[in-house]
Task: structure prediction
Amino acid sequence: ARGVLRDKFRNKFLVGAAVTPAQVAEGQTEADILKDQFNSITAENVMKPGALAPTEGSYTFEAADRLLTFAQANTIALRGHALLWHRATPDYFFQGTQDEVKARLEKYVTDVVTHFKGKVYAWDVVNEVISDDDGATAPYRNSNWYQAAGGADYIDWAFEAARKADPDALLFINDYNTELTGKRARLLQVVKDMQDRGIPIDGIGHQMHIQAATPVADVLAAIDDVDNQFMGIINHVTELDISIYNDPASCFKNQTNCAADYGNNIPQTAVDDQAQKYRDLYNGFEARPSVTSVTTWGVSDAQSWLNGYPVNRTNAPLLYNRDRAAKKAFRAIVEPDFEI
Ligand code: G3I
Result:
């Protein structure tokens, strides 16, 4: 029935999905699904620097503005993703002296946040700035940004500029693998240090691209750790999807020993396990008041990035199948009595 998903979590958290402009076009099935069941969207790609400012000094807001128009017309909130990232960002951002890099960064953040002022209610200000290991630059990722800025100061510059441009927007640090204890410890240390320096930060974005066997407890522990260690920091689950596979580290590293492609014959146990996991996760998020938004990274399985990552393979990580029909996972979430 209309609205059962978003209504189940009303006054708890916004129910979101990552989208493309094509998906929200008039008459698209995804657009109808979004109007029907969701109250938040995130741009899967068109609000990244490469999309908004492909060449220095000129902006291309048209695609992003189509998402904004759709959101406003349907009373759907718009999450901004992402101001600074080490990917999907033109090379010119990283050129010149530290002062030039800083001035360019501040201008970009100011211009983009100002364009969406009062319309984008929350921004992923920095995306994936935490290191995956305890290497030389830990807890920070040794990225193009880190190199160009001569260290991690660029994170502060971005948050300060964003706050100044739109004091009402919620500002997030967003990262993956927060369900892993090492990565999470580095992330929380960085947030603590930012707060100690007086940098304006409102929340932590947990991407939550998880695998079939990722324990639900590990995901919820990420939320609980934030709640236990901070006062007033909110949690957004920003990019949730549950792969139907379990891949070893080598698959992510060099695409070896990846789980075999199920093709169109996904085992019933995988479908059921995923539904149970979605149910347990949404129940867990609902029970944690610091979680104020839960976004899946896409609408239907047909369009998920996981069909191409870590290898080309049929995946089915979302709430709607390839025919855009609600999956068992959807019913598992919205119907407490539904037997998986
Ligand atoms: O639009 C172009 C098309 O014109 C061109 O012909 C084609 C050839 O490669 O590329 C198309 O762009 C691709 C774009 O997705 C749209 O499909 C890019 O190559 C491809 O790199 C891009 O991938 C996106 C990726 O971020 C990099 O920006 C994925 O869709 C998107 O799901 C993914 O999202 C990220 C989050 O932002 C951050 N967290 C991880 C998550 C998954 O990687």
